[in-house]
Amino acid sequence: MKRVKMIVAYDGTNYCGWQIQNNGITIEEVLNRTLTDLLKEPIIVTGASRTDSGVHSEGNVAVFDTENRMPADKICFALNQRLPDDIRVLHSEEVSETYHPRKQNCVKTYDYKIMNRKIEIPTMRLYSYFCYFPLDVEKMREASAYLVGEHDFKSFCTARGQAEETVRTIYSLEVLKSDDLITIRIKGNGFLYNMVRIIAGTLMKVGMGVYPPQHVEEIIDARDRNAAGPKAAAKGLTLVSLEYEKELEKEIKGENKEWSYTLYQHRIPSHKEASLVIHRCKEEDFERLLIRVVHQAVRNGAHTVLVKDEERKNRIIPGRAYGFYSFHSDESGNGWMVTGSQPAKP
């Protein structure tokens, strides 16, 4: 048995998204069927990003397990001979049997394209959103700055999204313009359901003058989907790439108006230990932050996480369950709290 990783590109126009649906054909369904036919055994692929109906990709990632002896790096060539013209596997390779595309730290990059002119260009109609109202790109850029960093993006998540934790980090958000084509390019550590499309719809409202740029900060603070702009059309969205972390970050910092913390991970490779220092945090966000960041350290390989709350003593209650975790006082008397026995991972 071997596990094969693929980089998959597709034109999403004729598909009901990535994940298998009852109401139409999907990318996952086509890959499963074609791989099963090629390798002469039942194949089920697991994708990194479950793109929506009509969304395109230049670099989605998927894996599958097979007992077939065909070299992993040759599978892409054989598979492309059987796939429809709007789906291509750009690369295939063998990876560890434990590799999972949704359980690795990575940077996801999306592009949202807007054709901003009086009359639509027919050749762009499937790959960009047409907006005849002139958009102020400078105001859109000013507004985008409020979205960069670690925030609670609940306002930018469709209400029926299943994510329990709505905090995400946007590393960069550019608004680029070339002739009549505006591209919103966004990089982040993950995105909520419809998050990029709602951000695009909100920035277009800013570009039209409906919202002033600073209103985006108020939308973030509201943590209410009704506060943000509309969800932009799927056809303008393309998943550009997923860049997986090759080396564990030694420090992770999170800072905004609500909280500030540093997660030290340099001892994870050698001692399976991480340290979290919470510099400040609003009371209503404290428990969520504690659970979220400790869980991140555990997923990154820590068996023990030491936590220090610099803002307020005794905010972490010994023995109390915080999600999957509990804490006890460090015997040194220096204010550190230590996770109990390693919890079962969800």
Automatic annotation (TrEMBL):
Residues 7-97, 143-245 form the Pseudouridine synthase I TruA alpha/beta domain. Substrate binds at residue 110. It comes from Lacrimispora xylanisolvens. It catalyses: uridine(38/39/40) in tRNA = pseudouridine(38/39/40) in tRNA. GO terms for biological process: tRNA pseudouridine synthesis. One of its GO terms (molecular function) is RNA binding. Keywords: Isomerase, tRNA processing. Pfam families: PseudoU_synth_1. Its EC number is 5.4.99.12. InterPro entries: PsdUridine_synth_cat_dom_sf (IPR020103), PsdUridine_synth_TruA (IPR001406), PsdUridine_synth_TruA_a/b_dom (IPR020097), PsdUridine_synth_TruA_C (IPR020095), TruA/RsuA/RluB/E/F_N (IPR020094). This is tRNA pseudouridine synthase A.
